[in-house]
Structures are given as structure tokens and as C-alpha cells.
Amino acid sequence: MKKSGLFSLLLVVIIAFTACKKKEEEEEVIEEPISNVGSKLTELPDGDQTFKGNLSNGEKLSDLSWAWNSSMACFVEPGKSWFEGNHVFYQIDIPKQTTIDIFLNATNSSDDIAIYAYSKGAGDKTIPPNISSCVSCEAAPSNSYAITGEKHLYLNATTNPYSIIIGVAGATGLTSGEYTISIDVES
């Protein structure tokens, strides 16, 4: 290949990369997800997204013991004070051989807002406290990244597609507080 052809190819690759990065930086933040399943669960569209929410759209759970049940293992009983405020639920489907990263940022850094997520079989929309088992569960009651205050969860689907239920919870007494969730899905 001639030098000019190689240079042209390199230039095209650089332009394409720059356009992709610019698109990522301009990602739209949706004020509220749009599809409600009943009054307690919001169904999210597939794929990457960023949206805002508020704990005032949720409610306190009457029982948290599901979380430390050995077939759930979301968080331990001594940490329950991080989850005794209002809970808001979201659901997203992921195909097999996919990972999902979920990031939560509280608008007000003094709000103690926790996040947890668990995977269930495809199409399952069971939410706490009416849940007894899951494939896997992760929780971030305190800041995953102390400097930014961001909380991060990671789940994956290997051989089967999964339904991912995301729970956002306030600490004891916290029934209102704005937050932003960003979801990155990668196959």
C-alpha cells in the first residue's frame, strides 16, 4: 500500500473515532424513564442510557430480610440502615454474553442513597419484598468512589439472558432525594 493510501486510511480511522467519542459525550439524560409496569416498577428500554429519578416516587419496604437470605445475599442485616428509606425499582433485560455496569450519583451529596441490582430469569419482574432467590445480587450502600460519590454495580449474563432489577434506596428516614443512573450494556 502506498504511503498516501495508508495516510488516508489512518485519517478515516481517526475521524471515525473522534465522532464516536463526541457522540458518547453528548449522551442525553432522560428526566424520567417512560414505561411503568404497575406502580412500583419502571421498565427500561434495552441498551445504554442515563436518566434521573427521585426516591419520592418509591415507598418504604415493610420487610428487608429477603436481602440477607442466603439465596439472595444482596446485603447483610447489620447494613440494613442504608436501605430503610424509600425504594424505587427499575427493570432492564440483557441478552446472554453481556455485561451491565450501573452507576448512581445522588444530586445532593449529603443524601445517603444506596443502589442494588439482581439478575433473574428473562422476563421475571419480581421485586422485593416478594422475592426469595436470584441468580446474583450486588449492592453499593456507600460510595464506591469516595472522591466522586458515585456508586457502581456490575452484573453479567453468560449463557442465558437475564432480567435485571435495579433498586435505589434511601437510608433510614430518607424518602426524597434526586439521583442520576447511567447504564452501560456491553456484549
From TrEMBL:
Residues 1-18 form the signal peptide. It comes from the Bacteria. This is Lipoprotein. It comes from Putridiphycobacter roseus. Keywords: Signal.
